[in-house]
Amino acid sequence: MIRLLIADDEDMLRSALAALLELEPDLDVAAQASTSADAVRLAREHRPDIAVLDLEMPPADGLRAAEEIRAELPTRIILVTRHARPGVLRRALAAGVQGFVPKTTPAAKLAEIIRDVAAGRRYVDPHIAASALSEDDCPLTERELEVLRASRTGASINEIADQVHLAPGTVRNYLSAAMTKLGVASRHAAAHRAWEEGWI
Fold first, then answer.
1. How far apart are CA 199 and CA 31, in angstroms?
2. Spatial contact of 33 and 51, defined as CB atoms under 8 Å apart
3. Cβ atoms of 97 and 122 closer than 8 Å
4. Which residues fall within 8 angstroms of residue 22, CB to CB, at 6 or more apart?
5. Nearest Cα residue to 144 out of 106, 182, 185, 112
6. What is the average per-residue pLDDT within 184-194?
7. Which domains, and CATH codes, for the chain?
8. 166, 157 in Cβ contact below 8 A?
9. Model pLDDT for residues 69-92, shown as the tens digit of each residue
10. In this predicted model, what pLDDT tens digit does every residue of 91-122 receive, in sequence order?
C-alpha cells in the first residue's frame, strides 16, 4: 500500500482528488492539507510514502514545503501546478522532487505516476519539459534583476535602495522598467515572474 499526503488550498479539488485516488486498491490517502505549513506538519506526523503538493499553495508555496519535507523525511514529492515556468522546474528537480505534473492530469494517470515515483522513477510532464527547453532569454538587465531580487523579501523602496546602494528614485526607475518589460502591474508581480523564470 502506498501512503499519500494530498495538499492543495482548493478544498473541492483536493477532496475530489483524494476520493478518486482512494478508489485505487494500492493507494491510501493518509492525510490532507490546505496550506504548505500544514503539508509539512502532516508529513512529519504521518510520514507518507508520497506527498502530492500543489505548487501554488499559501502561505509559502509547494516547492518550499517540498524542500522542508525532503530535508527531514524519505517521502517522495510530486508537484502539481496550473502553469510551470522553466525556473520552477529547475528548482524542483534540484530540490529532489520526483514528479512534476499539470493540474489537468486525470486521476487515473496521476495514480500511474504515483506508482512510478514510488518505485523510484521520476516523471516530468512532457509539455512542462518542452517549455523548459525552449525558455525565453531574460529581457532584464543585471541592475533590474538585482532590485527585483531585493524586492522579493517585501522590502520597501528605501530598504531596497540601501541594500543595492542606489538612490530610491533610481530603484523606482529600475523597477518600473522591469514591470514594463514583463508586462505586469506591480513590482511584486515582476519579482515573482522573474523568480518563476529562474532569472533571480
1. 35
2. no
3. no
4. 28, 29
5. 182
6. 91
7. 2-133 (3.40.50.2300), 142-197 (1.10.10.10)
8. no
9. 999 999 999 999 877 677 788 888
10. 888 889 999 999 889 999 999 999 999 999 99
